[in-house]
Structures are given as C-alpha cells and as structure tokens.
Amino acid sequence: MKIAFLSSFFPYSGDITNGNTRLYRALEKSNEIKAFNFSLLYPELLFKGKEKMASPNEVVDIVNSERILNTANPASYYFTANAINLYQPDLLITRYWMPYLGASIAGTAKLVSKKTKKIAIIDSMRTAEKQPFEEQTNNLFVNNYNAFIVLNNQSKEDLLTVNPNAYCVEHPLPLFATHPNKVEKNIACKILNIPTNKKTLLFFGTVRKYKGIDTALYSMSLLDDDYHLIIAGDSPSGFEYYKRKIKDLEIENKVTLIEHKLNENEIPYIFYSSDVLLMPYEEDVKKDIISRAFSFELPVIATDVGSFREVFEEKKFGLIIEKSDSELLIEAIKKYYSENLEKVFRENLNALRYSHSWESLATIIYDIYEQLLDKEDITIY
C-alpha cells in the first residue's frame, strides 16, 4: 500500500511528533510511505511560544518529510494537496489534536483525489478553554475524512456529536517509547542531583495553575521529609510565583525544579527517578503526558476529570481522587506507598504493551482501509 502521512514531524518536537514518528516507523515496515509536514504549525500571533522545535543537542529519530502545509495560509492547502496527489497514495493519514487544525487539514483533504482513502487519528476535538469557531472547524474536519480512529472516549463522543454516523474505531493512546532503555532509580536521581532515598513524586509538563500545581505544593508541605517532588517542565507565566509559594511553604528542600523546556535526552532520567506521576488537574486536558508515563511504566495519581477514571481505575494503572484537593491527594499518595501499589500497577502497565503500541494502531489502520475499499462491509461504531 502507498501511504501519505500528513502531520508534524522533525524539526518539530513534542509528544505528537514523537508519536507520529513511531507510527511512521511501524507503517514503513510493510508499505511505501511519505511524510508531509507543516511549514508553519502555530502562528506566533495566535500561539505565542507554542511552536516547539527540536534543539540541536537532542538525539531524535528524523523522518524525512516535505514541509509544505502552512496552517495560516489557505493557498498552501492547494499546494499540499497537489503534492499529495502527485505522490498518488492509496491512503492519506493525518492526526487531529486541536480544532485550530480543522481548516488546514480539512482544506487539504478536500482537494486530495477521491481515489485516495482518508483516515484521521483524533487525540482531541476541543481546547481547555473553548475558542471561537471550534464547532465550524470540527465540522469541516469531520466532513472531509472517510474514517476516524479516536484515542479516547471523549473524542469519540465529540466526533459522534458532529456526525452520529461517522465510521470510527476507538484505540488506546499508544506508548511513545515502546522499549526505552531502563535506568535504575538511584542512578537517575544522581544524574538529576536529587535525593536517592526518598519517595519521589513527579509533576511533569507545561506548568499551569489549572493543572493543580498549587495542590501538589501544598500537599508537600503536609507530607513528611520522606517525600520529594520533582516539577519538570516550562511555564508560560514563568516560575516566580511557584518559587515564592515553595519558599512560603518552607519546602525548598523537598522540591526540585527543572524549569525549562525538556528535551528527549533528559526525559528518561526524570521518569526513571520517580515512583508515581501526579496529575491533580482541575479540568480535562489532552492525555499526552499519560502516554509518556505509561511508556516508562510509571503509574499515575490523577483527579476525576475527562476519561482519567476510565483509564486508571478500570485497568488498574493508577489511583483517582474526586477533585484537586490536598487532603485527597495526600491520602492517595500514602495509600500508594503503604499498599505497595507501585509494583502491581507497573506489572499491569507492562502487560498492555502491544495493545497500546503503534504497531497495534497500524494494524487498525490496515483493517479500516480494507473496509473502506468495500463500503458495504463497513460497520458504524
């Protein structure tokens, strides 16, 4: 099969790009495939500081791609579709993780030959704070693809709200690093210059208040000195507020701040130094960080927002608390250690490697494509 894969690839960085790269590698094993990339993904005027590129010192898997689609320039939709048509693929695959992408990837798909089947993988069809024209761009997107793979139940609900008859298959969000090189906790801690004999908690990713960072910090002030918290990631508003908070709570010796944009080289050490990931979020957000944690077999303690309960409690990969509250978070943390849940959760995570892999997702893509070739056999999910 000949496949065109339209999404973000190197030199972009981040979880979406990493996942695309792993899916590309899974697909290229038995297909001819070409990557079509963005020339501009996030216009600075609308997304200040969001355009993240791989840094020169990162060791990354580079997929050669044609950088052609500019999300802010409708003329590029035509150029991108023309380039895809010249390649003459049997199948076009794309990835949808925010409504802003609707116009560009739908506009491109609309111009791609009707002989080419079109499958979209959906991470999310909403933003944390609803933006203008979300419904219109989601509608435009849905109406220009033949089939969809949704990576969580919320996306499935959003898709079927737009089109109740949409052909979709749900597949769990795959692990980004299927077999990362294992680093022992004490070695990872030494590399990060954090205590090696502590119960180590991790708060990972872009630091924003609605992610419950205040809850995590206040919890640390009530936990004894056996616990240590790593906060790793960047913050759009800077870290001065959090540094003052840490000082006011007198927990400087219990918190390690890694306050910069993380690169792929240092991320394994951060995860392998930790016992559990804290996600005391106040509202639902994309689940990319969960996939990161799962790839390192790191269990999670999270609030009951979005599909978190569905992901953790039913499959026994972590603990759920009812809301972003310090007392509830502390109770869950103590339960996690006192009942030795880390061992149980890590074993459960290891058992799901294939079902949550990019190879498994590639198999779903093949199945959908075969059904698209014979429309009478398609079952509406």
Verbal overview:
With 381 residues, the chain is α/β, with parallel strands linked by helices. The protein is globular. It folds into 2 domains: 2-174 and 357-377, Rossmann fold (3-Layer(aba) Sandwich); 185-351, Glycogen Phosphorylase B (Rossmann fold). It has helices at 15-28, 74-87, 102-111, 134-142, 153-162, 185-192, 213-222, 240-248, 267-272, 288-295, 308-312, 326-338, 341-351, 358-373; strands at 2-6, 32-40, 65-70, 91-96, 117-122, 147-150, 168-170, 199-204, 227-232, 255-258, 276-279, 300-303, 318-321. The model is unreliable at 377-381 (pLDDT under 50).
Please give a handful of descriptors for the protein shown.
18% strand, 381 residues, 13 strands, alpha/beta, Rossmann fold, disordered C terminus, 7-stranded parallel β-sheet, globular, single chain, 6-stranded parallel β-sheet
The helix/strand order is EHEEHEHEHEHEHEHEHEHEHEHEHHH
Report the CATH C-level class of the largest domain: Alpha Beta
Can you tell me the CATH architecture of the largest domain?
Answer: 3-Layer(aba) Sandwich
Q: List the strand order in the largest sheet.
A: 3-2-1-4-5-6-7
Domain module count: 2
**What is the fold named in CATH at topology level of the largest domain?**
Rossmann fold
Number of strands: 13
Radius of gyration: 21 Å
Strand content: 15-25%
End-to-end Cα distance:
25 Å
Structural class, from helix and strand content? alpha/beta
Name given to the CATH homologous superfamily of the largest domain: Glycogen Phosphorylase B
Given as residue ranges, the uncertain stretches (5+ residues, pLDDT < 50) are 377-381
Biggest sheet descriptor: 7 strands, parallel
Proportion of helical residues = 25-40%
Indicate the overall shape.
globular
Query: What's the overall average pLDDT, rounded?
Result: 90
Counted by DSSP, the helix tally is: 14
